[in-house]
Amino acid sequence: MEKREFKDRVYQGITQLTKALANSHRVEIVELLAQGEKTVEHIAAETGVSVANASQHLQVLKGVQLLATRRQGNHIFYRLANDTVFAAWQSLRTLGLLQLAEVAQLVHDFRDERHTLERLSIEELVERQLNEPVVLLDVRPAEEYRLGHIPQALSMPLTELAEHARALPTGQLVVAYCRGPFCVFADEAVTYLRGLGYPAVCLSEGYPDWKQRGLPVAILN
Amino acid sequence: MEKREFKDRVYQGITQLTKALANSHRVEIVELLAQGEKTVEHIAAETGVSVANASQHLQVLKGVQLLATRRQGNHIFYRLANDTVFAAWQSLRTLGLLQLAEVAQLVHDFRDERHTLERLSIEELVERQLNEPVVLLDVRPAEEYRLGHIPQALSMPLTELAEHARALPTGQLVVAYCRGPFCVFADEAVTYLRGLGYPAVCLSEGYPDWKQRGLPVAILN
DNA sequence: CATCTATTCAATAAGTTTATTGAATAGATG
DNA sequence: CATCTATTCAATAAACTTATTGAATAGATG
């Protein structure tokens, strides 16, 4: 094989993979599956596309081995093939936030509307937890909490926050986290809790980012 | 702004960026520019596309801020906008080598043809250098050596190897490196040197990967 | 100031990707 | 075994991407 043919084939192979990630619905699916496995129906509903269309996108991702599946009863559960897939999405996300002023601006503005102020990094949270007790809230849907969460976090889906907020311990910092930097569950929770007078802040990244750092995670069976 | 509109805009922004990287010529350009700045003409020649076509691809990359330019005389030099761009390409490359059996196979086979055996990782090289002297060869074109190389490396472009090989010190391990894991300059150099009886091995990654790790680099003016 | 040169632009045709339909399938459940 | 349900398949039209031309531009050089 000639040098040029070799290069063309290698770059085309990697490009196939990149093309699979070069669609807004598909990256939304990758980010969603970073929370844990989901059915086609669930993915379609959550991303706002038709089931047939979601299925097609899922097959594009599966075609380049980014996803794996398992069947349970009538449902097929899709999941990320491995941690490298999330790592690649993470670095595209970082690049986007850094390079595209519009994206950074969009995130900033949308958050500002909701009057959310400080955000704690994962490293800051780890350090704080060593020195003082912190109330950690996982505000994602209960099913995602079940599939994996930060140890010691309480499951507090947004839908149940109003009901349980008054029962939270006072006098401790409350830290809420959700799916990732583009998820606004945590912002909404923090806005609500601050309204009740709690000292609440958001975690700047989500559960998948915690997991990706190799920090310990808790799973319910 | 509604939640869905926000998400759509964020994901579409990042997708624009990913689309810019979802073309085999364009990733080859990114990898080439990781060696240092180049003119349009040079990029066209090296990647085997027409100048007009190279210019178009360069503008796609520049349009999403992945590249920056400077003019010198009649020439326009393109370069990577910053280190995050290489980091993103690096993680797509890693994903490709891991997920796509064909790509890994292709790289393995092409190398095997050239009878190249062992490869040293960057970490192994650093450790070895602490314990014993190593002859380090930068086999990229002289201009790329000038723009940045591993300290203590000798510039030994493939074209000049035959002429200078006999002058290399004997009794020391010879390590050759080039542009990256898809570059075969180093393999060719090692094959040649082993033919002459030198104990020679390749570095498994290239100069940009060394630089990206934050290790020291040398630049000539 | 005329000329030269490297780069970009514009138009085009061929090829790819996408969402939408509605039908087909494969496995579970009564 | 018939029925149901979640998922996939196939066909299509519209929207994008790409390489190829050849012309235009902007700046440098004599």
User: How are strands sequenced across the largest beta sheet of chain A?
Assistant: 4-8-7-5-6
What name is given to the CATH topology of the largest domain in chain A?
Answer: Oxidized Rhodanese, domain 1
Most residues in contact, chain pair and counts? A-B, 53 and 53 residues
Number of domains of chain A: 2
Largest sheet of chain A: 5 strands, parallel
CATH superfamily membership of the largest domain in chain A: Rhodanese-like domain
Assembly type = homodimer
* N-end to C-end Cα span of chain A: 52 Å
CATH architecture of the largest domain in chain A: 3-Layer(aba) Sandwich
Report the C-alpha radius of gyration of chain A, rounded.
19 Å
The total count of strands of chain A amounts to 8
The SS-based structural class of chain A is alpha/beta
Keywords (chains A, B): DNA-binding, Transcription, Transcription regulation
Protein name (chains A, B): Metalloregulator ArsR/SmtB family transcription factor
Characterization of this structure:
The structure is a homodimer. By secondary structure, chain A is α/β, with parallel strands linked by helices. Chain A has 2 domains: about 5-85, Arc Repressor Mutant, subunit A (Orthogonal Bundle); about 100-210, Oxidized Rhodanese, domain 1, CATH 3.40.250. Chain A is about 55% helix and about 15% strand. Chain A contains 11 helices and 8 strands. The first copy, chain A, has helices at about 5-20, 25-35, 40-45, 50-65, 85-100, 100-115, 120-130, 140-145, 160-165, 185-195, 205-210, and strands spanning about 40, 65-70, 75-80, 120, 135-140, 155, 175, 200-205. In chain A, the strands form 2 sheets. The first copy, chain A, has a 5-stranded parallel β-sheet. In chain A, strand 5, helix 8 (about 140-145) and strand 6 (about 155) form a beta-alpha-beta unit. The N and C termini of chain A lie far apart (about 50 Å). The model of chain A has no long low-confidence stretch (mean pLDDT about 90). Chain A binds a DNA duplex (30 and 30 nucleotides) through helix 4. Chains A, B: It holds the Pfam family HTH_5. Chains A, B: Keywords: DNA-binding, Transcription, Transcription regulation. Chains A, B: This is Metalloregulator ArsR/SmtB family transcription factor. Chains A, B: It comes from Hymenobacter koreensis.
